Amino acid sequence: MPKPDEAPRAVLAAELSEHETQRIETIAHLHAESERQVGRQQRFVERLTEIIGQPRTLGAIVLTVALWIAFNVAASHVGWARLDPPPFEWMQGAATLLALLVTTMVLTTQNRQAKRSDRRAYLDLQVNLVAEQKVAKLIALVEELRRDLPSVRDRRDHVAEAMAEPVDPHAVASALQAKLESKEGRDTIPAKRVEEEGKDKPPKPAQ
Q1: Model pTM score
Q2: How many domains does the chain have?
Q3: 196-202: long-range contacts at Cβ-Cβ below 8 A with a sequence spacing of 24 or more?
Q4: Distance between CA atoms of 127 and 151, rounded to whole angstroms?
Q5: What is the pLDDT of residues 26-79, one digit of tens each?
């Protein structure tokens, strides 16, 4: 008997087409292949980072610090030996070491996530370029079919002709870079102008 949560999945899988199912399987295969390349140390660090990133970890740290301070303050009143008298140098050293370790683990996790994001962005770029070429080819075929059909009035569509031409990625990248540089230049001109106008103004007389 299938589980309650498996019934909606089965209905969803039945509604998906073969092409969509193949696409999902391809994405899952790429994700599994990427995860298999991760070493044990990386997995251990990411697991610790995930555990430390929970809200309960914050509560545990606050509770531990409060108990440590309360014990060392109350120990002098009951005659016990204080493990870490004020200003709690041992606790400060432990907190500094813990912060260093957590920072290193977070950076290690973020580095792998950044590499994975770069690979996904590169894959998306390749897919988009291929899709753009296919769309341009389809537009060209439709325009050719329209010219050959005797029942359709032949006319020149400049928009369709422009869309039928595949986009040059290098030209787009150069135009985008030039646009960004010109925008940055416009943003810095007012600041420089205000600074120069401030220099030209005579200083105010002292009152």
Answers
A1: 0.56
A2: 1
A3: none
A4: 37
A5: 777 777 777 777 788 888 888 889 988 899 999 999 999 999 999 988 887 887
